[in-house]
Amino acid sequence: MNIKLSSLLAAILTLLLCFLWSSPLLWAFSTALRSEAQTVSGLQWLPDPSTVEAFVNVLTFGSLPTFFMNSVVTSLAITGVTLLITVLAAYSFSQLRFRGANLIFWTCMFGIIFPFEALVIPLFRQIYHMGLVDSLGGIILPQIVSPMVLFVFKRFFDQVPKDFREAAILDGASELQVLLKVYIPLSKNIIYAMAIITFIGAWNNFLWPFLVISSTENMTIPIGLTQLNDSYGVRYAQNMASALIGGMPVAIIYVLFQKRVASGFLAATGLKG
């Protein structure tokens, strides 16, 4: 009886926490499905009647599609280049022996100590002198190197038995072939996990794009959402609709691949699920 009571209490508590967590999201959906007049008419959870006018307006008449495509381009570029650089660097630090390897690696790890905000001014000066201010390249370039992702890949490569690499080299494989045919397949779950986390971080990044971008045509979703108000004032339904559309891709990606994220972290820490 005690076990049943504790299970019931746990279920009730879980449902309560789920409601508390999801209530802002439900309110956002409710607001987005109202007309602009309903959003200021009073407090109500359910739209009466419901309408998709706000979604149609932001997709048809606003700049949201431009913001969305800029976020897609920059996030995919940051994710792809980050994985390419960190996988190659992690394999080199883990499996190759060259002078100064440890010094270079721990110099890279030193970057974890500093928050991104502390590097904003020197990064902006560098991007300015490179002529990349107010461009998608200016958003992408400072974000393509991640010391944390490098550390995760190196940690995993260190755990792979040395015999795998030695056997492949004895069979005539080059270092690049060893990486592509041995280490990459073994680290598939970690690659998925790091790709998703990097993509979500790039998609949600507000501070750096806000500093480096000034023209509307180069804005990403987080910055663009701050530019949606017009001469008629705040349009709550359209703002909520834009926020939901902007956040939907990362939510869908995480829901679809959450098991791979968990498996990737278990593999990176040497644990078995």
UniProtKB/TrEMBL annotation:
The keyword Oxidoreductase does not apply. It is found in: Cell inner membrane; Cell membrane. Gene3D superfamilies: MetI-like. Keywords: Cell inner membrane, Cell membrane, Membrane, Transmembrane, Transmembrane helix, Transport. It holds the Pfam family BPD_transp_1. It is a multi-pass membrane protein. The keyword Iron does not apply. Signal peptide: none annotated. The chain crosses the membrane at residues 67-91, 103-124, 136-153, 190-216, 236-257. This is Carbohydrate ABC transporter permease.
